[in-house]
């Protein structure tokens, strides 16, 4: 059977039409709320903290296939000020591998925090609020080992640090940062840029042993 260019064009046009229809149906009928709440539950189980997601949830295709949601926050660790969140953001775009999620594993492909406020707190005895449960320090079934972060970014964020020594917190604004963490036993890459003393400063860090 011979195909001319017109026949090929008709076939390609039909395939494109089917693809467009599939995208429209995906947006219209995909259970966004259920998937987002399941991700919320799983992340809470892994971090042992309360994760709050806004109700304005939409499917996103760029920069990754996933969801975007407004007004998110992750609570502080116990023994720290409960009125202050560990992190909150005006908008979060996230992509989670769905099949592993159904199997009880969290594989976060991408997290982008826009307009985020990250509050780092530490006590004089060495306890910090950026410490999360691991197999070594928790008897819980779900720990941070179940969480893989391929691409996490802060866009136009603010970071504050309080060392618990009574001194005013160190604060930095206009922070853009990214981290890649496959697991606590593999090197993690951190890049950041921020404004310090009216100058833009760039930072690149490799953590050889994130678990330590």
How is the topology of this model organized?
Layout: H1 5-29, H2 32-47, E1 51-52, E2 57-60, E3 66-74, E4 87-96, H3 98-102, E5 106-114, E6 117-121, E7 147-162, E8 170-181, E9 188-196, E10 199-207
Parallel strand pairs: 5-7, 6-7
Antiparallel strand pairs: 1-3, 2-3, 3-4, 4-5, 4-6, 7-8, 8-9, 9-10
Main beta-sheet annotation: 10 strands, mixed
Number of helical stretches of at least 4 residues: 3
State the total count of DSSP E strands.
10
Catalogue the unreliable spans: none
Q: Give the class from helix and strand content and strand pairing.
A: alpha+beta
Average pLDDT works out at: 76
Reading the helices and strands in chain order gives HHEEEEHEEEEEE
Proportion of β residues? 35-45%
């Amino acid at each position: 059977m011979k195909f001319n260019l017109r026949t090929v064009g008709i076939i390609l046009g039909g395939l494109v039409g089917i693809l467009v229809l599939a995208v429209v149906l995906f947006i219209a009928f995909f259970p966004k709320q259920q998937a987002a709440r399941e991700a919320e539950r799983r992340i809470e189980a892994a971090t042992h903290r309360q994760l709050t997601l806004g109700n304005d949830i939409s499917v996103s295709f760029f920069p990754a296939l996933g969801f975007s949601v407004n007004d998110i926050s992750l609570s502080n660790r116990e023994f720290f000020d409960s009125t202050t969140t560990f992190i909150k953001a005006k908008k979060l775009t996230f992509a989670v591998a769905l099949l592993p999620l159904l199997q009880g594993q969290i594989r976060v492909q991408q997290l982008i925090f826009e307009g985020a406020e990250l509050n780092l707190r530490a006590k004089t005895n060495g306890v910090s609020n950026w410490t999360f449960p691991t197999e070594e320090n928790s008897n819980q079934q779900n720990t941070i080992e179940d969480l893989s972060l391929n691409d996490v970014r802060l866009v136009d964020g603010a970071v504050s640090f309080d060392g618990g020594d009574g001194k005013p917190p160190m604060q930095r604004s206009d922070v853009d940062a990214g981290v890649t963490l496959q697991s606590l036993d593999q090197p993690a890459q951190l890049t950041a840029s921020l404004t310090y003393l009216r100058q833009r400063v760039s930072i690149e860090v490799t953590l050889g042993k994130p678990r330590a």
